[in-house]
From TrEMBL:
This is RNA polymerase sigma factor CnrH. Gene3D superfamilies: 1.10.1740.10. GO terms for biological process: DNA-templated transcription initiation. Residues 28-96 form the RNA polymerase sigma-70 region domain. Belongs to the sigma-70 factor family. ECF subfamily. It comes from Aquisphaera giovannonii. Pfam families: Sigma70_r2 (PF04542). GO terms for molecular function: DNA binding; sigma factor activity.
Length: 209
């Protein structure tokens, strides 16, 4: 169950405590699939992608105390992207030369040593982030809804079926399909926007990946 905004601290603040297993578990659940897809898009195999994710999380754990949330310096997602991208480039380079101890690299040097990503690469990262965050949020709220409500949402918002077809399949009215879809989307937006506010992001909730 999602904690209320009144009782939950910012995820980034909580990540500064290495003993906060819940915060780190949530962070890994959201970002590990994203890093995996980024790695696979660059041709890394499963084992290398898993190693990359571990290196990224190690780097974040070492540098989170010094992370500056000032919007003028960019978003947390952008900061994380640069770490992941540069570690990935190091990993690819290690295939052609002697490996570098990327996990112990100074994060500031790690951020500065590789040219900035181009627009296409940044757009890919943002797209995968939106997909991953939607999938994570869907998993978080799934248990809050009865099966017909969830199916009505999934069939129309994700599989893009016509509401009348979903209504026929589920044995409910078209109006009930619209109501179910609206309820689930509102809950998803709330969860997604909360995560975004806690990581200084600018996600635009769209209801589907």
């Amino acid at each position: 169950m999602i904690e209320s905004p009144l009782t939950r601290q910012s995820l980034l603040v909580r990540l500064k405590d290495p003993a906060d297993g819940r915060a780190w578990g949530e962070f890994v659940a959201i970002y590990a699939p994203l890093i995996d897809r980024l790695a696979r898009a660059r041709g890394l195999q499963e084992a290398d992608a898993a190693d990359l994710a571990q290196e990224v999380f190690r780097a974040v754990a070492k540098a989170i105390d010094d992370y500056d949330p000032d919007p003028a310096r960019g978003s947390f997602r952008g900061w994380l992207f640069r770490i992941a991208r540069n570690l990935m480039i190091n990993l690819l380079a290690a295939r052609r030369s002697r490996p570098q101890a990327t996990g112990d690299s100074d994060v500031r040097r790690l951020l500065d040593q590789v040219p900035a990503p181009d627009a296409a690469e940044t757009a890919l990262f943002d797209l995968e982030y939106r997909r991953g965050l939607f999938q994570w949020a869907a998993g978080e709220v799934r248990g809050e809804f009865r099966e017909p409500t969830w199916r009505a949402f999934w069939l129309t918002a994700v599989e893009e079926r016509e509401p009348k077809d979903a209504a026929s399949e589920l044995g409910i009215s078209v109006g009930a399909v619209y109501i179910a879809r609206s309820r689930v989307m509102a809950r998803l937006r709330a969860v997604i926007e909360k995560v975004e506010s806690e990581t200084s992001g600018t996600f635009e909730a769209r209801g589907k990946p």
